Amino acid sequence: MNRIEDLQKMIDESNNIVFFTGAGISTESGIPDFRSKDGLYNVNKNAEEILSHHYFVDNTADFYDFYRTQLQLMDVEPNAAHRYIADLEKRKNVTVVTQNIDGLHQKAGSTEVIEVHGSISSYHCLKCGKKSSYKELKEMLFSEKIPHCECGGLIKPDVVLYEEALNSEDIENAINCIEEADTLIVCGTSLVVYPAAGFIQYYRGKNLVIINRDPTPYDYRARLCIKASLAELFKQLR
């Protein structure tokens, strides 16, 4: 059998599937990844520092200039990979654990999504804690250099920046889902960003699948490794 057939057989024989996704699943929707040759961190050498907690605090206006143009991409649409995973949820117990903040899994129709690095779809006030959606803040975000709450507090996107801890509930939920999975399918991530990449260590099943353009540190553990366009690959599955 070829690798597509092998993957299809694993999916057919599994009832509880976890997809662990990274930036590579969204590149074919037009969102750049971070670490590839053309990724955000190579195009802008300061990007990693800009997306840090200390930079947000010390250079808030510059942070928001970068954030609006590079990350606040609400008009992007899901591709075939996102749609396949959402459709599979209608037939199987499917959970998505994603490192992405773009919300494309939900936009495609997935309902069981754990966003371990947060989301561009929501914000909160650092002073009073009020939560707001992107829709509610859209006008302010693009008209004010630094958005503030009605209480005067600074508004921050609900994304996890460098130097910030992941949400403990999200970590627990992600690990529990991965531990209980029949099949774990890793899609479009280099598996080098911790602590999220370390979640893979909790998988105890036999069907670890890694689909990524470049090798990962976990390839040796995988039952199946595929180098392919994610959107094209998932178009071949049923």
Spans of at least 5 consecutive residues whose pLDDT stays below 50 are none
Give the quaternary arrangement of the chains: single chain
Let me know the number of strands. 9
**CATH class category label of the domain at 1-30 and 77-117 and 166-238:** Alpha Beta
First-last Cα distance: 16 Å
The third-level CATH topology of the domain at 1-30 and 77-117 and 166-238 is Rossmann fold
| Coarse structural class | alpha/beta
Please explain how this structure is put together:
The chain contains ten helices and nine strands. The protein has a domain at 1-30 and 77-117 and 166-238: TPP-binding domain (Rossmann fold). It is 33% helix and 18% strand. The model has no long low-confidence stretch (mean pLDDT 93). Strands 3-2-1-7-8-9 form a six-stranded parallel sheet, with helices on both faces. The protein has a three-stranded antiparallel sheet with strand order 5-4-6. It starts with a helix and ends with a helix. By secondary structure, the chain is of the alpha/beta class. Helix 7 (104-108) links the parallel strand 2 and strand 3 (113-115).
Describe the structure using short key phrases.
alpha/beta, Rossmann fold, 33% helix, 6-stranded parallel sheet, 10 helices, 238 residues, 3-stranded antiparallel sheet, 18% strand
Topology (elements, then pairings):
Blueprint: H1 3-12, E1 16-21, H2 40-43, H3 47-50, H4 53-58, H5 60-70, H6 80-88, E2 93-98, H7 104-108, E3 113-115, E4 118-125, E5 131-133, H8 134-143, E6 155-159, H9 168-180, E7 183-187, E8 207-211, E9 224-226, H10 230-235
